[in-house]
Amino acid sequence: MSLLVPLYVHPAEDPGAWHRLITAAARTYAVVLNPASGPGTAPDPAFTSVARALHAAGARLLGYVDTDYGVRDRDRITEEVRRHQSWYAVDGCFLDRVTATREGLPACRRLVREIRRLGAATVVLNPGVHPAPGYARLADLTITFEGHWSTYAGAFTRPAWTGRHPPDRFCHLVHGVPEALVPLAVRTAHERGAAVCGPVTGEPPNPWAQLTPALSGEDG
């Protein structure tokens, strides 16, 4: 089992969740750090501490950066990447709200190349849907579904081009999963061609404020 874990809650607000995450670091693909819808304007000592502990436990850390579907200035995005690297020693970045259109692909390609030049070893793209062919070649991992379990449990189709990539290049993030159905959500992701997943029980507006129960499961 390989879990992508966005845990968007301050360590002081829920230290127990962060402690459980640290102890289960070996079960994760990566942990997304998001101190302030990005790195914030100054280092947060609480996040510095958990980042250090997660690294010591063997976790891969990704800094959260919002691209606002290509609207945000590229210099602002790369500056946030630098802050994450400098303050929290992240291994890569989690680019949220990425464009999914064919027209947006060239700009996304330039952005990813620049981020890799800054030293990001792992780049995760989150369009939240299946993007146009080409996006998956830019990233180490592409999130091709982000949404509620009520949607995910229904009909699901994936374009033929996804079959040209191994399953470990795709991830599904599903929220609102009843706790008893979390193992089913993990199996469903695998059956749908995503070797990485992140099922959580939380609901909007911030479903990622809770740790996924899959971290404590035996079989995911």
Give your account of this protein's structure:
The chain has 220 residues and is α/β, with parallel strands linked by helices. The protein is 30% helix and 20% strand. It is built from 7 helices and 8 strands. The protein has helices at residues 15-23, 45-56, 74-88, 105-117, 135-138, 149-152, 182-191; strands spanning 2-6, 28-33, 61-66, 92-96, 122-126, 141-148, 170-175, 196-199. It is globular.
What is the strand and helix layout of this fold?
Blueprint: E1 2-6, H1 15-23, E2 28-33, H2 45-56, E3 61-66, H3 74-88, E4 92-96, H4 105-117, E5 122-126, H5 135-138, E6 141-148, H6 149-152, E7 170-175, H7 182-191, E8 196-199
Parallel strand pairs: 1-2, 1-8, 2-3, 3-4, 4-5, 5-6, 6-7, 7-8
